[in-house]
Specification:
The protein has 2 domains: 267 residues, Rossmann fold, CATH 3.40.50; 362 residues, 3-Layer(aba) Sandwich (NADH Oxidase). The protein has 22 helices and 18 strands. The strands form 4 sheets. An 8-stranded mixed β-sheet has the order 3-2-1-4-5-6-7-8, sandwiched between helices. The longest helix has 25 residues. By secondary structure, it is an alpha/beta fold. Helix 3 crosses helix 9 and helix 14 packs antiparallel against helix 21. It starts with 6 loop residues before the first helix and ends with a helix.
Amino acid sequence: MMDTFDYNEAFSRNIGWVSEMEQQVLRTKKIAIAGMGGVGGINFLTSVRLGIGSFHITDFDEFELANFNRQIGATVSSIHHMKADVLIAMAKDINPNLNIQSFPNGVNPDNVNQFLDGVDLFFDCIDLFCIEARRLVYSECWKRKIPVIFSVPLGMGFGQVIFLPGKMSMEQYFNFDKDNSELNSIKLLLGVSPKGAHTSYLMDKSRVNLEKKKGPSTIMGCQFCAGAAVTEALKILLNRGTVYAAPYSHQYDGYRNKYFRVYMPYGNRNPIQKLRIFLAKKMFINKGNQEYPYPNLNFNNPIENILNLARWSPSAHNSQKWEFSEINDKSCKLSILSTDISGPSNQTIKINFLHAGLMLETLRLASSYFKHDFSWTFVPNEVEGDNTLHFNLNFKENLSITPDPLSQFIKIRFTDRRPYQLKKINPKVLEALKQSISINHGIVFKETFKDKWRFSLLDARAQKTMMLHPKLIHFFSEKSLSKNDFPSQGIPLGSFNISFISRLLSRYIQKKPKLFHTFMVSFKGYLLPLLKVSIISNMFSGAQFSIVRLNNAHSEQSGVGDINSMYLNFIEDGQMVQRFWLTCAQHGISICPSYFAILLSRSDTQEYYAKDFEKHTRLLKKIGISFNNIHGSLADNIIFSGRIGYPKNYEVKSRSLRLLLTHLIKKT
């Protein structure tokens, strides 16, 4: 341990950028900082390393797990400790001779004078939504002629406004409303970032929730704030350099490599700024933005927590044809209901078992996430004509289990129907995808222009059949295609590669089956959707893929009960599809399946759909021929296919959610 601390030696590497005299001047300065969170904590420690000698700080919060992404003092050892105490200890580890006065109860009318007594500069690091506390401190700073630096982390950059004595005040600049806290939060954000340089890459707008006073943040933004704020503090405290105070604002965005210094006369009273505020009000106030995939419920029963995660298993058109029953703390029953997809009985049974495999693999992964062993047993259905599949599920706590990495992607995985980048998939990723499935399966990737074109035509013909065939047209009803961007059942119209006008038209005509049929048949209304959804989307992809069963063997699965070997193969097919899909998500790869092309290529399915509807025979035969030409000798063994690629944008504007667990539990 160091016996003596030498200030001059400790901060000697500052000399050069500041003179020896200036370093000693900084040592005499006192800075007040309100808030020791993301920005305040880093501002504090950065100022300490600059050599500032005295501080008044305040924060009445404790560190919690949600602070770990951005707050410099948030560590496993500091959790549930007072932020101010932790930061003081860190600061005194840098300079033991610091003069620090802490205000553990925050700043209020009773202590604001003491908080600002003898202060040379104030860093505003108050929580963004605490407008009244901010106004209190600013008012006193204005009276005492104390400079204020207000920095906000914005995405992967920062916004900053500086208030100097004799210049524009905070009240003049922000023009706060008397009573509307949500509006004031908008005024604060837009005032510090009129250009909004950070908004173009916000991936999930639902995370900005003014009603709940929550917003996303990054450590990069907080660190940018500290560098910018302490640099301006140096200029102010040493009386050198140009300081652009309000009505100037500063924004630098590291993600876009852009800096803006905006001169805004009258601040938020500026006519252009008023328009920005008006538009922001419409976008954010009273929207009640719900973060998907919320609500994220926690149950007392660990089995219910597992089921709650497993309900995110994929299903055809997000139909969620399953239910749980007889739930206790060690077991429950799973029923896979018959699919909505009509067809020959052998194909519908296959689809049911494929759904079962998807769900059983998801249950296994969810069990590992909650540190439970998982096993299942098939229970034969004794009701004749009922295609419902029944399984007994068993769970056993095992704290030594390491959660499967794929379990983290169960909720995140979704069907991305948008066009992708043309960029080829990294060979290492392709190899990881091949390794994700069992030795009884293989994956074929096709990446050439010709192959994509052939897949596009095949998918277009399958989609056309679905739009025109009376037995399949129900997949375009309001129940299957939802006008909501985040429906709990069905597929959102907004997830397709179609225009806003097309979505409006679809919403209208899907309410009227006869009009829908007339539009599709007489006016060839399927042409534009096929061009955008099938042709363009398939051409804009990294690769087309097909998962093929190589043999009739299946992986050893103990305790599965009395089940036909062929059905067990179907279950394993579903398990492999889910592992492949989740592995894609793990590597940042989007996926859009094309299962109907497989279904409609089968001869028995073609006979089923051609019966009583002979005009569809020609199109169905074309699908079968195209499918066989693409896959050759493997055609009969293809179990799953579609397209994969790197998304053009990871922002999720629309996706299917799931029914709450309470809706999936069978009522007795």
